[in-house]
Automatic annotation (TrEMBL):
Protein name: phosphoglycolate phosphatase
Top EC class of this enzyme: hydrolase
InterPro entries found in the cross-reference section: HAD-like_hydrolase_sf (IPR050155), HAD-like_sf (IPR036412), HAD-SF_hydro_IA (IPR006439), HAD_2 (IPR041492), HAD_sf (IPR023214), PGP-like_dom2 (IPR023198)
Pathway assigned to this chain's UniProt record: Organic acid metabolism; glycolate biosynthesis; glycolate from 2-phosphoglycolate: step 1/1
Pfam families recorded: HAD_2
Family to which the UniProt record says this protein belongs: Belongs to the HAD-like hydrolase superfamily. CbbY/CbbZ/Gph/YieH family.
Entry-linked PANTHER family: PHOSPHOGLYCOLATE PHOSPHATASE
Reaction equations catalysed: 2-phosphoglycolate + H2O = glycolate + phosphate
């Protein structure tokens, strides 16, 4: 079965506001106020530790010990407000439904912890549109290691050589290259069309174009 695998944050959904709010909750608890702004959305899509590092660097006091200490607090704050501002990108639901109607399996492979990812897609009402979900802690490794991607395809009932990845970062590009599969990177994330610098197999300007793109890239 042909399979399309999606990244979650910055690809299926704009989660940046809720991620940034969780990091700022940590900084407020430490008495520093909000150190991150909406302009830091790209950092948010690189994960909780990246946001904490950026905030502490603005204090001139970057320490991995501080990052490690605050990371559990960030996860707890994020869990509390995981879907406050998060929204699926326009056309995402319709594109996934069209793929499934055309005989594709669909899956999610994300570097968000699996429990949080499951909670988010359930609250967004789309968990039933995906045959498998692999998170950062589902396996011993995470993207760009190939194992989580392969697991997401296989658990969805597909085979890696007949799959593709839709993502928004260099991590996704590297994952696809490691798996030997095509990758489409979205241009509606914080990088916009600057993501073309990564030279993916395709750029995705709107989810309306995905079903036709998948037909072309996945044989």
């Amino acid at each position: 079965m042909r399979t399309v695998v999606f990244d979650l944050d910055g690809t299926l959904a704009d989660t940046s506001a809720d991620l940034l709010a969780a990091a700022n909750a940590c900084f407020r608890d430490l008495g520093h106020g909000d150190l991150l702004t909406p302009a830091d959305a790209l950092t948010a899509f690189h994960g909780g530790r990246a946001m904490l590092r950026l905030g502490f660097s603005r204090l001139g006091a970057l320490s991995e010990a501080d990052v490690d200490a605050q990371y559990p607090r960030l996860l707890a704050a994020y869990a509390d407000g995981i879907d406050t501002h998060t929204r699926l990108y326009p056309g995402a639901v319709q594109a996934v439904e069209a793929l499934r109607a055309a005989g594709f399996a669909t899956a999610i492979c994300t570097n968000k912890p699996e429990g949080l990812a499951q909670t988010l897609v359930t609250r967004l009402g789309v968990r039933g549109l995906f045959d498998a979900l692999i998170g950062a802690d589902t396996l011993p490794t995470r993207k760009p290691d190939v194992a989580p991607y392969a697991a997401s395809v296989e658990r969805a009932g597909g085979r890696v050589p007949r799959s593709m990845l839709v993502g928004d970062t260099d991590t996704d590009r590297k994952t696809a290259r490691a798996a030997g599969v095509p990758v489409a990177l979205v241009t509606f994330g914080p990088e916009g069309r600057d993501i073309a610098r990564l030279e993916p197999d395709a750029l995705l300007d709107h989810f309306d174009h995905l079903p036709e793109l998948a037909e072309r890239l996945v044989r």
